[in-house]
């Protein structure tokens, strides 16, 4: 970041990319797109590791997967979408672990606490919801 030099460009989404996050170890990048997919990338090579599908939106949705967050241990990914849900994913396998529902409109932002036990979500329904995501 000190030089501002472009290292690489990652391409693969079929629509705009609204959110990116980097894993705590710096090896993996995750992107969320208005194409309703999440892509996991190798930071060192730029190679696409996998695509996660599971969010769905109504015709005319503009944000799709508007937010992604990785847990501090790097094992879990949370994604928030215009479909009013948050999905929790296993980073290693791409398996969808659970879906959280409760917002009445699309989700614009998700964040995971430093201890990995709590998730916060912000929505166009004008609310912030706090979720317990781990019983550790």
What does this entry look like structurally?
The chain has one domain (17-132): YVTN repeat-like/Quinoprotein amine dehydrogenase (Methylamine Dehydrogenase, Chain H). It has strands spanning 17-22, 28-33, 37-42, 48-53, 65-70, 76-81, 85-90, 96-101, 107-112, 118-123, 128-132. The mean pLDDT is 91. It has 136 residues and is mainly β. Strand 6 (76-81) and strand 7 (85-90) form a beta hairpin. The termini are far apart. The strands form three sheets. Strands 1-2-3-4 form a four-stranded antiparallel β-sheet, with no helix packed on it. It has a four-stranded antiparallel β-sheet with strand order 5-6-7-8, with no helix packed on it. Strands 9-10-11 form a three-stranded antiparallel β-sheet, with no helix packed on it. It is 0% helix and 48% strand.
Short description:
By secondary structure, this protein is mainly β.
Please describe the biggest sheet, giving its number of strands, its sense, and whether it closes into a barrel. 4 strands, antiparallel
The residue ranges in which pLDDT falls below 50 over 5 or more consecutive positions are none
Report how far apart the termini are.
Answer: 35 Å
Helix count equals 0
């Amino acid at each position: 970041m000190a030089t501002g030099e472009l290292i690489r460009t990652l391409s693969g989404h079929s629509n705009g990319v609204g959110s990116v996050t980097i894993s705590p170890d710096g090896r993996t990048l995750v992107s969320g797109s208005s194409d309703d997919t999440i892509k996991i990338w190798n930071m060192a090579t730029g190679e696409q590791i996998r695509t996660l599908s599971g969010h769905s939106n109504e015709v005319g949705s503009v944000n799709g997967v508007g937010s992604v967050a990785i847990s501090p241990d790097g094992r879990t990914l949370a994604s928030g979408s215009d479909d009013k849900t948050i999905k929790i994913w296993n980073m290693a396998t791409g398996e969808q672990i659970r879906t959280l529902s409760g917002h009445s409109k699309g989700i614009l932002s998700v964040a995971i606490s430093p201890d990995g036990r709590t998730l916060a979500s912000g929505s166009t329904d004008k609310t912030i919801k706090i979720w317990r995501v781990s019983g550790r």
